[in-house]
Design a protein that fits this description.
The chain has 218 residues and is mainly beta. 12% of the residues lie in helices and 34% in strands. Residues 131-216 form the Apple domain.
């Protein structure tokens, strides 16, 4: 007979917030906006991509905000004056510098707690590298092409990008060639000079986009 699972106690003094995150990721806060104090806006394909851009930016930024309707990533600072507001279609979050893994439990701050900013100031900075880049169905990242090749599926395109040291992101498309009665399955490998920030993000049926997995740690 199996022993019952041990009960774990939640430590006091830490504010927990229900958020969308994986075991090795920094938390994201859906339906949460932190208006104002924008330093820069970039195009991003997803909240996870926005978080990666925020974490990799050469300047130090405190928060990110992602609007899913226009694919915009807003980098912010001046955390002492930020006020969290509930808003549909907007995701906010932390750069990975603020994630702290202690005894396999994430200390996740509550953005709405009155003592949050004091808690954040006292946190130990610990950079966690992980793969936040999921595949993005129905998303096209036009431009910045290195080359294209024919592959059977989006997974093969992702693998090709990961194995190419020059590839930062990709778009896989299926084009129906009605006159020839077959489809053209193209994998476009892409790169920009600095961070993997696509110059344009659009919606496109039969397209799958994503990012290189070279920096992923499992």
């Amino acid at each position: 007979m199996r022993n019952p699972p041990k009960k774990t106690k939640r430590k006091t003094g830490v504010y927990f917030f229900s958020s969308a995150h994986t075991p090795l990721s920094c938390p994201l806060f859906p339906k949460t906006n932190l208006p104002g104090h924008d330093i820069e806006s970039l195009l991003a394909a997803s909240p996870e991509h926005c978080q990666t851009l925020c974490s990799a930016h050469p300047q130090f930024f405190v928060f990110l905000g992602f609007s899913g309707t226009i694919f915009k990533c807003y980098l912010k600072n001046n955390m002492a004056e930020m006020v969290a507001k509930a808003e549909e279609g907007v995701t906010s979050g932390l750069p990975t510098h603020f994630c702290q893994l202690v005894n396999s439990t994430y200390h996740i701050p509550n953005l709405f707690h009155p003592n949050y900013w004091n808690h954040l100031t006292n946190m130990t900075s610990s950079l966690l590298t992980e793969c936040a880049m999921k595949t993005l169905e129905g998303i096209n990242l036009p431009g910045s092409d290195l080359r294209f090749l024919l592959v059977n599926n989006a997974k093969a395109c992702q693998k090709t990008c990961t194995e190419d040291p020059n590839c930062q992101f990709y778009t896989y498309t299926i084009m129906l060639l009605l006159m020839l009665f077959h489809s053209s399955r193209r994998c476009y490998l892409k790169r920009v000079i600095t961070m993997p920030a696509p110059p344009k993000v659009t919606k496109l049926a039969n397209a799958v986009s994503g990012f290189s997995l070279r920096n992923c740690h499992y």
